[in-house]
Amino acid sequence: MKKPISDPPACSTNLLAMNDTLDILGGKWKLLILHYLIQRQDISNTFKKMERDITGISAKMLSKELKDLEANKLVHREVKDTKPVTVEYSITKYGESTKEIINVLVEWGKLHRKEMMQED
Fold first, then answer.
1. Which residues lie closer than 8 Å to 102 by C-beta, 6 or more apart?
2. Is 73 helix (H, G, I), strand (E, B) or coil?
3. Which of 55, 56, 57, 69 could serve as 75's disulfide partner, Cβ 3.0–4.6 Å?
4. 78: helix, coil or strand?
5. How far is Cα 39 from Cα 61, in angstroms, rounded to an integer?
6. Per-residue pLDDT of the chain (120 residues; tens, 9 = 90+)
């Protein structure tokens, strides 16, 4: 008779942590938005500019994703007292903690693209 497969506590903890990470950073747009803001820390990042620069994202989706990222303390939203009102977004100090993850994903993406371009 086979022994049942055990579920070591460390495995469950790691899976829970991975699930939390995917809930916060998962989806098509969140990492792209974070990458955009990390790369443009010294630039004014208005909603309209981000909508133009992040190819393919709708205003509705950008708004939703920014709200989620702000709720998770990764992005800071600042309403400027201008006419018309301007809203600027920036990466938070905590949001900068995603930089290493994003850089690893960018490098892997380059490697994967190169691999897929090679003929067998």
1. 31, 34, 35, 38
2. coil
3. 69
4. strand
5. 21
6. 555 556 666 678 888 999 999 999 999 999 999 999 999 999 999 999 999 999 999 999 999 999 999 999 999 999 999 999 999 999 999 999 999 999 999 999 999 999 999 976
